[in-house]
Each structure stands twice: as structure tokens, then as C-alpha cells.
Design brief:
The complex is a heterodimer of chains A (862) and B (124). By secondary structure, chain A is of the alpha+beta class. In chain A, 45% of the residues lie in helices and 17% in strands. In chain B, helix 3 links the parallel strand 3 and strand 4. Classes of the chains: A alpha+beta (862), B alpha/beta (124). Chain B: Pfam families: Response_reg.
Chain lengths: 862, 124
């Protein structure tokens, strides 16, 4: 690796880490769309953009640096309250994240496409001119806070802004003073912060300038409390913290001007956002709800001090202090809503470790919305795209970035934004069929996909690194230490054997040697297991990326979807997780674009307008099963049959014999799906053969279940690891083969008379079930030996079963499968070769391929 | 005897970059940290001749660090440079008001940093 490429790899790895964090936080922000953003979260995102800017500047990545600069600037204005976080701003941030990922991809490959450069320029320019400025109050609420100028002088602009916000809202402010030992004050402070965080916002942490004794240091924390004094004192019990309240002078004099100010922000928002139909219950707590609160203010003729909009949980505190009744009552109503939301039994699945509770709330609330209100996700559907009719190239994944050259599907904020309800009605009028359950493609040109959809690069990571928990590494190092100990013992034994000569080899010596060898074996096994574990990563890594994609596709497709994720903690080999991302992306796309109906069609079918797309992982023994499901219109197997017959994939006679499941599985056949069949089958089957092949390369298989009107589910069954597997060694005609043990269900012994022939095909009866049966010798054209009985290795993946006849069983062994090079790669039924300890190389059977072969034979018979 | 310079900057890339710049000056030894807390702990353990600090950091901010240093009789003579970002004028002004000697605007020219270092560290 040249120094240049090493630096690049370092850059890519670090930038990936930053982007991952950025993406996680943005996801949380997006899920809380329409609610007031957590200032810590916004600040965190700002810091990520800031770091990215620094990093890319350092490595001469100018395009990333340019975009990061624009993003940082936008976020800076956001966190300083100079800009409102509305839908357009959030969309821009999400789009920027996509662009960063595309840029990083190009950087990793050492390319620079002009279309992407143009997109970056356009985005940076758009972000610079973005957003409605928030109203700056004529009088600074901070002036009402009694705080020494000395203390104020060490606040950063951001901290000052947070303090101002807290004063403005009437949050009670405290100075929390605590002294610690200099050697471990950070621990003490961390504990104090952990106690304080649930009770409010730590605005600033100031080390006291007075030397706190020889080994001590004191800190002043400026704290905005969401709870009353008693709760605060209770919460801090046992810490060295001392509380003193900061006094805020009332803003009585400013009452009249406050009324004026109250109306102003609403006006600004109306002008900038167009007639947004996003208002919904509970929105009074958000920026988007400004219109409503302005009305309140006008109607009541009495405004709460300062800008009345941002009612928070702290509002009861304000009402206790004698704020106006209107404000008090509204805030309690809001609290009621959010509490209801939290309690409502919605299947909320946390996608990231952060704030699961919050998200449940976020999800639950839209469910309680009146049906005519639209969730914000829908607000930016490109006007020329019909819901449910999006198409994408069948090859997918590696589509060249921005093929269409159009900069972005997101409309610029401003009067051009189309009110959602009106838009949907318009679409329905223009093309009533477009919203039916199985939408028909317009004759002629398909609707072109928006740029962002085609600009998708693969979801695969750009780096080959695995982050390993330090505890795991320590465990491995311990094991190596123990191995060294055993080695020393063995060395000692060898030495004594050498000195004493052959005569002295006693029984005792043999026993000792055997004991050491056993110890060695155990330790080596543990080491191997530990190393394999180090390769394991939670499948949630790829789920998180998919969650982001889902939000975007949903937005673009004009659907309403809840993504239900579970089992993200299930671990798989890093390699498998990486390879899995593209097939999963493909399946999820299918589900959203074509499986799930439009909200109107769903209502018409008596379903909730919000569809559920599920992404679930579950460990089953040596396998992990991943399910991608939707509750959409399902696959019409009758149409599948017709298409398969029309395309010559099966004969009419074959079709007659096929079960529903077999029919459905035809969608994985190469040649089944074409662009046209998209519309014929509600879009199912687009490039599913590619998905199946990808999975086959991972020794996995895919299976589909579907019921008309109810939905569709794909099950992906995968081995936990590919690195080292346990194999069954079998002998056929004097040759040895290895069968991965994870797919071996059982081994039975059968006599030749038990083998029946059904339609020129050999089968066995296994406990009343007919089991397809192949002779490995015939399959590989080896001379057959006459035997009095066969060993039949029953293999299975998912629901497929096959009996493989072999002559001998040699036992089990751990093997490392090496791929076969060049021409041998295409040999069916062999996945690779492995070296056995005795310097013999044997071939490893590809069980998934054999099963498929078995099914194909079944289909060919006629 | 080399003089010690403390660099406080949470962004790894910037930190490494600045450290490399400072280390390139002969006779200078660099101590780096990513956090204001760590800086507070390092102060009594070393004799720093110069401190270079970022402003926006997750634990305590750079202004607070400056204030702490300047109010403490043990350290108040140590010159401080602040690292700021373009456009963050208020933070910069406050840093200078609290007693910072110089400010560096990211991304800055290595030449200018070296000249400043030589001046404040009284190197030839």
C-alpha cells in the first residue's frame, strides 16, 4: 500500500465513522420531524459536520470540505436559533448526507464525477440561502438574567444562545457548584451530568478560577431545570453539588411588544413554507405550529411573555410562576398528548441505541392524527411522479450516480411547495388508475426515477475494517498467554524426552503429554471461537443504513410507511453483513415501491393508510433468518403462473402440478422478471434472480411467502459465518467430500429397496414425506460401487430438503473453505476446496446449489 | 531542554495537523489532548510554555479553559492561542478579552504559526 493510498484509507475510515454518527443522529431528528429538536442532538450533528470539514480539508478532499462547510454553516445557524428546523432544512440535511456518502464513495475509488460535483455546488448554494430566519427579539432576554458579567464572558456563542432560550421559556435556572479531587474530577462530573441530564439541560460547565485547594477543583454548572427545586434536590442527593437559583427579572415591561413578536414568527413561516397542511395536534410544541399559537395569541389578546410558540415540558413551571392561563392550559394539553403517545401500544422498534422511548412517541402520534392530515414525510413528493409507479433499473445497486443529471428531487422551499392534500387529490383526478391496487404502467415511456433514487450507491461499507470490543481483544490475548504456557510445558516435556532418551518414556510421561495436548486443543478451540466472534458484527449495522433508505424512498414514492425493525443485535460475520446490504436494499425497495399500496388504495381496501414494512433478524441454530415483509397487496400467483408459462419457464403441465409455494418461488427464476412484468405483478420480481444469486454466494437461500391482499414476506436463511465451518466428511467412490454441517439435518441408512422411482426420479420416503434423493456418484459421474446399503445425508435450508447418497461417513472436522479459482468456479454443486490436516485437499459441497439442482430437476420432469 | 506546548483540540484531524506543525519547530515538545477536562488535569503535571486551544469542545469550552488559566496564579503567565473558525467572531473576541494572546483561524498557514511560536516561546 502506497503512502497515498494508506492516507486515503485512513481518511475514508474516519469519515465513514463520522458519517455513521451523523446518519444516526439525523435519523432521530427525522423521526421526530415536526417536533422540537433536542438541542444536544442538533449540536451533535453540527459537531459531526464540523469534524468532517476539518478532516476533509486536511486530506485535500475539496468537494467534501465544500459541502461540509455549507452543512456546518447551516447547522450552526440552526443550533444558534438563527434558523428554524423545518421540513425543507431537514430534507436538505438528509440529502447532504446522501451526497457525502456518494462523495466518499468516489473518493475511495479515486474518481470524481462531474454530475456529483455539480450537485455539491447546487446543494451548498441552496443551503446557504436556506430557511426563514427566526425572529430576533428586540430585547435580549439574557439581560434579565442576573449573572456576573465575568461568567457570561466565558460562554461561547452557542452556550449563550442556549441560556437565552432557557430564559425566554421561563425555565428555572440554577448554578450547580461541585468540588472534586483533581485526579478524578471527570468521573465525578460525568456522574453529576448523568444525574442532571434527565432533569433538564446542562448549559455550561465552568471550572472555577479559584484554586480549589492543592488537589481539588470546583466547577459551576449552569443548569436549566425542567423540574421543581424539590425534585432537583432529590435528584442530586449524594453528590457534592450545591444549588443556588439564578434570578430572572420578569419581562412585564415588554408585554406589549411581546404580543407583536408573537404574531411575527407565524407570519414568517407562512410566507416561507407555503400553505403547509402539516398542522396536527401537539404541534403547538413545534415550530410548525406557530400559526396556531399566533391565532391563540391574537384571539386571547394576551400573549405569554416572549415568543409563545415553544412550549416545552418546562411550561408547567412557567404557569406555576403565574403565566397566563391560556399558556398553562395549552401546555398541559400537550403534555397529555405526548404522554398518551408514549403509552399507546404501537409496535415501535428502536433502530438506534439512542432514545427508544422518544421514538415510540414520535411514531405513535401520527397514528392518532385525523385521517386528512398528512405526516410531514409526504410533503416533498416530486410533482411529476405518480405514487406507486416508480421504476428503477433492474440491475440496481451500482447504477451510475445521477444518470439523469437533474440535481435533486426536493423542491426548493418557498411558495413552490405544493400542499400535500391538494397534490394527492390532483394526482387522483388526473389518473384514477394510478392509485388502484395494481397500478398499470402508462403505455410507452416509464416514469423516470428521481435523481436521488438513481444516485444511490451501494450500501456496502467503504472500509474493510471491523471494530472489535476491547474486552474481546483482551480475552484473545489472554488465550494466547495460556497457549504460551502450554507451549512451555510441551517444550519442557520434549526436553526431558530428549535428555532421558527413548527408554525413559514412561506411562506417566505419556499421560502428561496427553493432558497438555488436550489443554492445547481446548485453548486453540477457544482462540478460534474468539477470533470468529471478533469478525461478528450486529446485523443492525446494515439495518440502520436501510432505515435511512426507507425514509427516503418512502418520501419519494409518496407512501406512508412504518418500518418495524427487530433483531438488530443478532450477529453475523462482517463479510456476510456487508454482502447482505445490497440484496436487502433490493427487497426493501420492492416492498415500498411495489408491494405497498398508496395510502388511498389502502384505505379503500380497508387497511390502515400507513403500511408496515418489517425487517427482522432471528438466530436459529447455526443460521440467521432475516425477514423482509410488507402488509401490502401481495403477489398474485395466478399471474405468476401465466407469466412463467408465457416466458417458457414452465410448461402448462408442470404448472398444473405445482404448489402455490413453488409457483411463488418462480419469481426468483432468471428471465422471469422484465421491466414489463413490473406493472403486471404489482412490481414483484424485479431482478430477484440477482438477489437469489447474491445469497447463494453466501451459502444462503431465499424463500417467499405471499397472500393476496395481506402482504408478502421474504425469508433469507444465512449461515452465521463463512470463515471456519464444521463439516461432515463423506466418501463416495473412494473420494472424499466435505458437507457443511450447518445444513445437515440428519443421516439415515437406507437399503436399495427403499428407493422408489417417481416419474424417472428417485425419491425416498422419510417419515411419510417424499424426499428428493440424489446419488453423489451419479451427479459427479463417478464409477458407482455396488453397496448393500446407502448412507443418506439429509440436507436442508429453509424449507428445502434433499437426500444425498454417499458410501462412507468419515466424521466431522473444522474446515476453512477456499474458493476455487478460475474456470472451476462455475462447477455446480461445489463451493470450494479445503485442506484437511493430513495434507489432503477435498472439495466442499455447495448445499444451496444442490438443493436448487434438485428442485430444477423436479421442475424439468414432465 | 525542550519547551512544552499543550494542544487542546477535540477534532482528531485538526489536532494531528496542528501538532505536526508545532512539532516541526525545533526545540518544541508537544502534549496533545482532545478534551478540556484532560487539559485541566495536565496543567499541574507539566510546565507548559504555551497552550493552544480550540473553542468549541464537548466538555468545557476553550473560553473557560482560558479563564481558568488566566485566573490561576500558577499558570497565568502562560500565553494562550485560540483556534477559531472563520466567522465565529464573538467567540474569538471573547477569547482575546479573556487574555488569549493570539488567534489562529482554521485553516491557517503553517508559516504564520511557526513565526508566532518562535515569538512567544522566545526561540531563536
Amino acid at each position: 500500500m502506497s503512502p497515498g493510498s494508506k492516507a486515503l484509507a485512513e481518511f475514508v475510515a474516519e469519515a465513514t465513522e463520522i458519517l455513521d454518527a451523523l446518519a444516526r443522529d439525523l435519523l432521530v431528528l427525522d423521526e421526530r420531524r415536526g417536533y422540537e429538536a433536542d438541542p444536544d442532538l442538533v449540536n451533535g450533528i453540527f459537531r459531526a459536520a464540523h469534524s468532517l470539514k476539518g478532516l476533509s480539508g486536511l486530506f485535500g478532499q475539496e468537494r467534501i470540505s465544500r459541502l461540509a462547510h455549507g452543512t456546518e454553516d447551516l447547522l450552526d445557524r440552526l443550533r444558534l436559533g438563527k434558523l428554524l428546523l423545518d421540513g425543507a432544512v431537514l430534507d436538505a440535511l438528509i440529502e447532504a448526507l446522501d451526497a457525502f456518502q456518494a462523495l466518499l464513495g468516489e473518493a475511495a475509488r479515486g474518481t470524481e464525477s462531474e454530475s456529483l460535483s455539480a450537485r455539491v455546488e447546487a446543494m451548498a448554494a441552496r443551503m446557504a440561502s436556506m430557511g426563514a430566519p427566526t425572529e430576533v427579539a428586540a430585547d435580549d432576554p439574557l439581560d434579565r438574567l442576573e449573572l456576573e458579567a465575568q461568567v457570561r464572558s466565558v460562554f461561547t456563542e452557542y452556550e449563550e444562545h442556549r441560556l437565552r432560550e432557557n430564559v425566554r421559556r421561563g425555565v428555572s435556572l440554577w448554578r450547580v457548584r461541585a468540588a472534586f479531587d483533581l485526579s478524578d474530577f471527570d468521573k465525578g462530573l460525568a456522574e453529576l451530568n448523568a444525574r442532571l441530564k434527565p432533569l433538564g439541560e446542562v448549559i455550561s460547565t465552568l471550572p472555577s478560577a479559584q484554586p480549589g485547594g492543592a488537589h481539588g477543583i470546583a466547577f459551576d454548572l449552569i443548569f436549566g431545570a425542567q423540574v421543581d427545586r424539590v425534585s432537583l434536590e432529590t435528584g442530586l442527593k449524594g453528590t457534592p453539588a450545591e444549588l443556588s437559583a439564578l434570578t430572572v427579572r420578569p419581562a412585564a415591561a415588554a408585554a406589549t411588544s411581546a404580543l407583536l413578536q408573537a404574531a411575527q414568527p407565524a407570519a414568517t413561516i407562512r410566507a416561507s413554507g407555503g400553505a403547509k397542511s402539516e398542522t396536527r395536534p401537539g404541534d403547538a410544541a413545534t415550530h410548525d405550529g406557530d400559526a396556531g399559537s399566533a391565532q391563540d395569541a391574537a384571539a386571547g389578546g394576551l400573549a405569554a411573555p416572549d415568543v409563545p410558540v415553544r412550549v416545552t415540558d418546562a411550561a408547567p413551571e412557567a404557569s406555576r410562576k403565574g403565566a397566563t392561563p391560556s399558556r398553562g392550559s395549552r401546555s398541559s394539553a400537550i403534555r397529555g398528548t405526548s404522554a398518551d403517545a408514549k403509552d399507546s401500544p404501537v409496535a415501535g422498534h428502536s433502530t438506534s441505541p439512542k432514545g427508544g422511548g422518544k421514538k415510540k412517541g414520535a411514531r405513535a402520534t401520527p397514528a392518532a392524527m385525523p385521517p386528512e392530515a398528512q405526516p410531514p414525510l409526504l410533503s416533498h413528493v416530486p410533482e411529476d411522479t405518480e405514487p406507486g409507479l416508480l421504476e428503477w433499473p433492474t440491475s440496481d445497486a451500482d447504477v451510475p450516480a445521477n444518470a439523469g443529471g437533474s440535481p435533486s428531487p426536493t423542491p426548493v422551499p418557498g411558495p413552490s411547495s405544493v400542499p400535500v392534500v391538494a397534490y394527492l387529490q390532483g394526482a387522483a383526478k388526473a389518473s384514477p388508475k394510478g392509485l388502484s391496487v395494481a397500478p398499470a404502467a402508462p403505455a410507452g415511456a416509464p416514469v423516470s426515477a428521481p435523481a436521488a433514487l438513481t444516485a444511490d450507491t451501494s450500501l456496502r461499507s467503504l472500509t474493510q475494517t471491523v471494530r472489535v470490543d476491547i474486552g474481546r481483544l483482551d480475552g484473545l490475548i489472554n488465550m494466547v498467554g495460556e497457549l504460551l504456557l502450554i507451549k512451555a510445558n510441551l517444550q519442557r516435556l520434549a526436553e526431558s524426552a530428549r535428555q532421558d532418551g527413548a527408554v525413559a518414556l514412561s506411562k506417566l510421561f505419556g499421560q502428561e503429554l496427553a493432558r497438555e495436548t488436550r489443554g492445547l486443543e481446548r485453548k486453540l478451540e477457544a482462540l478460534q471461537e474468539g477470533l470468529l466472534e471478533a469478525r461478528m458484527v450486529p446485523v443492525g449495522q446494515v439495518f440502520d443504513k436501510l432505515a435511512r433508505l426507507v425514509r427516503r424512498i418512502t418520501r419519494e414514492a409518496g407512501k406512508e410507511i412504518e418500518l418495524a425493525i427487530s433483531g438488530g443485535e443478532v450477529e453475523l460475520d462482517k463479510l456476510i453483513v456487508e454482502e447482505l446490504s445490497d440484496p436487502l436494499m433490493h427487497l426493501i425497495r420492492n416492498a415500498i415501491d411495489h408491494g405497498v399500496e398508496s395510502p388511498d388504495a389502502r384505505l379503500a381496501a380497508g387497511k390502515p393508510r400507513r403500511a408496515v414494512v418489517g425487517l427482522r433478524a432471528e438466530q436459529k441454530g447455526n443460521h440467521v433468518v432475516i425477514e423482509v415483509s410488507d402488509d401490502g397487496s401481495g403477489i398474485d400467483e395466478v399471474r405468476v403462473r401465466e407469466v412463467a408459462i408465457t416466458r417458457g419457464l414452465i410448461t402448462f403441465a408442470q404448472a398444473q402440478e405445482m404448489s402455490r409455494r413453488e409457483l411463488l418461488n418462480l419469481i426468483f427464476q432468471p428471465g422471469f422478471s422484465t421491466a414489463r412484468s413490473v406493472s403486471e405483478l404489482s412490481g414483484r420480481g424485479v431482478g430477484l434472480d440477482v438477489v437469489k444469486n447474491n445469497l447463494g454466494n453466501l451459502s444462503g437461500i431465499i424463500d417467499v411467502w405471499s397472500e393476496r391482499g395481506k402482504g408478502t414476506a421474504f425469508h433469507l436463511t444465512l449461515p452465521v459465518t463463512l470463515a471456519i465451518i464444521r463439516a461432515l466428511l463423506v466418501g463416495v467412490s473412494g473420494r472424499t467430500y466435505a458437507v457443511p454441517l450447518n445444513s445437515v439435518l440428519e443421516i439415515i441408512s437406507v437399503q436399495p429397496k427403499d428407493i422408489r422411482t417417481v416419474e424417472r426420479r428417485e425419491v425416498l420416503d422419510l417419515r411419510g414425506q417424499t424426499l428428493p434423493f440424489v446419488r453423489l456418484s451419479r451427479m459427479f459421474a463417478l464409477p458407482e460401487r455396488p453397496v448393500s446399503r446407502h448412507f443418506v445425508v439429509v440436507v436442508g435450508l429453509a424449507q428445502e430438503r434433499l437426500g444425498i447418497a454417499v458410501d462412507e461417513l468419515h466424521g466431522q472436522q473444522d474446515i476453512v473453505t477456499k474458493p476455487l479459482g478460475g474456470r472451476l468456479q462455475s462447477v455446480r454443486g461445489i463451493s470450494g476446496a479445503t485442506d484437511l490436516g493430513n495434507r489432503r485437499t477435498v472439495l466442499v459441497l455447495d448445499v444451496a446449489a444442490l438443493l436448487e439442482e434438485g428442485m430444477a430437476v423436479e421442475r424439468r420432469r414432465a | 531542554m525542550r519547551v512544552k506546548v499543550l494542544i487542546v483540540e477535540d477534532s482528531k484531524a485538526s489536532r494531528e495537523y496542528i501538532a505536526a506543525m508545532v512539532e516541526a519547530v525545533e526545540g518544541v515538545e508537544v502534549v496533545v489532548t482532545s478534551s478540556g477536562f484532560e487539559a485541566l488535569k495536565l496543567l499541574p503535571r507539566h510546565r507548559f510554555e504555551l497552550i493552544i486551544t480550540d473553542i468549541n469542545m464537548p466538555d468545557i469550552n476553550g473560553l473557560e479553559l482560558i479563564n481558568f488559566v488566566k485566573k490561576n496564579p500558577n499558570y497565568r503567565e502562560v500565553p494562550l492561542f485560540i483556534i477559531t473558525t472563520e466567522g465565529r467572531d464573538q467567540d474569538r473576541e471573547r477569547g482575546l478579552a479573556l487574555g488569549a494572546a493570539e488567534y489562529l483561524v482554521k485553516p491557517f498557514l503553517p508559516g504564520s504559526l511557526e513565526a508566532l511560536l518562535r515569538r512567544y516561546l522566545k526561540l531563536p
